[in-house]
Write a structure and sequence with these properties.
By secondary structure, the chain is of the alpha+beta class. 19% of the residues lie in helices and 39% in strands. It is built from five helices and 18 strands. The strands form two sheets. Strands 6, 7, 8, 9, 10, 11, 12, 13, 14, 15, 16 and 17 form a twelve-stranded mixed beta sheet that branches. The protein has a six-stranded mixed beta sheet with strand order 5-4-3-2-1-18, covered by helices on one side. The chain binds 2,6-diaminopimelic acid. The site of 2,6-diaminopimelic acid has 19 residues, from helix 2 and helix 4.
């Protein structure tokens, strides 16, 4: 039986995998919004579409539940790597994937247990590359006023953009208040993912996450890499950092080569088919 989708999560950050070899779906924004909807669809923090096979290369496209496309997703890459293993695509436990935000290198440490390491590449703090509006600069320890309160922000890209807010105390309430304002702020032409960062010690940080195009999530791999890199840039942590999130922890290592390597788990949830009513809605939305 062919399945239309597979569902996995990385520390509670859940994604639907749609494989073009299995399912013939055009991923228009309104179709993505419907499938990801927690009440009217399957429900998820996004869609992973692939593998798109180009010769030897395996490409992954990543979509947020608002229908926008993300350049990179750390949990998404780990989840997709587990799917490739489960679906029998892999001939090795080490391989590379193409994403909109660049090539990443994956190692299945223990695939069935879902322990996967990803070299997410390098980060940049340069405004033009994040991007952040204003004069060309590294965006480090800048002041940003939201709702009359001044925040210290450091912005960077690891393929997708992140705004890290350094605080002594963090909470879900605060990230849900300022996250959407920062996400859509005029400073960020492509919008931005937002994290509140609390440094616990030289090897442990705690974050709360507001994702571009997704909202509050329990965990985020690219956010883990971005916040660890920002804390390291600010001299607040060592190069081996455990990132603690509401959904669990991810280990991030910052290499001497500048590459950021993330290790975390993946949980397989279910596989399914779109039943007639939803399939008809998808067909209507795609104009078929
Ligand atoms: N949950 C993802 C983040 C997706 C990033 C996406 N929201 C964007 O627009 O960049 C992760 O584990 O990295």
């Amino acid at each position: 039986m062919k399945f239309d989708y597979f569902k996995y999560h990385g520390l509670g950050n859940d994604y639907i995998v749609i494989d073009p070899q299995n399912a013939d779906i055009s991923l228009e924004p309104e179709i993505i919004r419907l499938i990801c909807h927690r009440n009217f669809g399957v429900g998820s923090d996004g869609i992973l579409y692939g593998p798109i096979i180009k010769g030897e290369d395996l490409q992954l496209r990543i979509f947020n539940p608002d229908g926008s496309e993300a350049e990179k997703s750390g949990n998404g890459i780990r989840i997709f790597s587990r799917y490739l293993f489960d679906a029998g695509y892999l001939h090795s436990n080490q391989f590379q994937l193409e994403t909109l935000g660049g090539r990443v290198y994956v190692e299945l440490l223990d695939a069935t247990a879902g322990e996967i390491r990803v070299d997410m590449g390098t980060v940049t703090f340069f405004s033009a590359e994040v991007p952040v509006s204003g004069p060309p600069r590294q965006v480090i320890n800048e002041e940003l006023t939201i709702n009359g309160r001044s925040f210290n922000v450091t912005c960077l890209s690891i393929g997708n953009p992140h705004c890290v807010v350094l605080l002594d105390d963090i909470s879900r309430e605060l990230v849900e208040e300022i996250g959407p304002i920062i996400e859509n702020h005029a400073l960020f032409p492509n919008r931005i993912n937002v994290q509140l960062l609390k440094v616990l010690d030289r090897n442990n940080i705690q974050i709360e996450i507001w994702e571009r195009g997704a909202g509050y999530t329990l965990a985020s791999g690219s956010s883990s890499c971005a916040t660890a890199s920002a804390a390291y840039k600010l001299g607040l942590v060592a190069e081996d950092i455990n990132v603690h999130m509401p959904g669990g922890a991810i280990n991030v290592k910052i290499g001497q080569d500048g590459h950021v390597r993330m290790t975390g788990s993946v949980t397989a949830v279910c596989k399914g088919v779109f039943m007639d009513d939803l399939a008809a809605q998808i067909r209507d939305l795609s104009g078929l």
